[in-house]
Model the fold of this input.
Amino acid sequence: MDNNFVIEIDTKKNVEFIDITERIQEIVFLKKQTTGQCFITVPHTTAGITINENADPDVVSDIIAYLDRSVPSNDTRYKHSEGNSAAHIKSSLMGTSLSVIIENGNLKLGTWQGIYFCEFDGPRKRKIWIKIT
Amino acid sequence: MDNNFVIEIDTKKNVEFIDITERIQEIVFLKKQTTGQCFITVPHTTAGITINENADPDVVSDIIAYLDRSVPSNDTRYKHSEGNSAAHIKSSLMGTSLSVIIENGNLKLGTWQGIYFCEFDGPRKRKIWIKIT
Amino acid sequence: MDNNFVIEIDTKKNVEFIDITERIQEIVFLKKQTTGQCFITVPHTTAGITINENADPDVVSDIIAYLDRSVPSNDTRYKHSEGNSAAHIKSSLMGTSLSVIIENGNLKLGTWQGIYFCEFDGPRKRKIWIKIT
Done:
């Protein structure tokens, strides 16, 4: 079995964070990988990936609202003609890749940590690339 | 010897950056790892990790002060009931993991670079997970 | 052949993003690496690295302009005596390292993704360290 996997995701809103922890965990199970590293990357420039609390959904709402205030979508000073500069900026602030330890066949995350795909210019069809080593 | 290590840390302030470079370097020495990669991750959602200047402590103070101005802790628009939304936001801005090259048994860092644990909601007992590959 | 490479770069402006995708791709070709991971890190504390759109140069201009507005270079509240605190802050916001999948001898990036060295305190001679695994 190959080490490279793809998750496809249909985002529903213009800006939203989607918990993808379970879907990545499923891939680790399928691969029967007991130890190693799981690299997760987003091949888009108006989306990102971050780890944050998955218990209270208000945490993610507060992150989204902060980013909207800090990087307003309708700032007249943007030059990029597609009108989605805010999404590009947020992508670089959150980052487009991260890595998680695999231990005993599981993603090794803290108690409250979930992995979020960050849509900043949806709704769109998106991909997430996973590499297990 | 295993490849996984834990550093425990007692933070003293609500918000502070703690230089953990030496403690990570000690683990690389103990492991007698001469070449490879050192992955460092924080299993918390109100803390982070970053690399920045370790010569003048004013640099880290200025980063902390900027984050406090940009992400005020007492913004009434936050919805998360625990009152620590600013800490969660700062965690995603700084990130919760990074990787450093190991060369000749040492962490390969630039002259002025130190690795900082970023406490955003302390004081607390915290953990840092290290994996050497 | 070793797995460690260095790119040297002379930045021309105080703040600029330089597309280094081709130079990293060249190293992957030279190494004849068909599969693996390419780790890219900046040994500086007033520079960074990010992935974003490489089609319209206005995207990168908009990211630079946002960072200048969010992190003003002349804020009188900075304490660091060298006067480049804004550069240090931007470095931690963008991050100083990232990793890209290598597949079929190529960096595996999204259609619009380029890898940018972020100069925040130039012009200077800078280095980028690459490790291929």
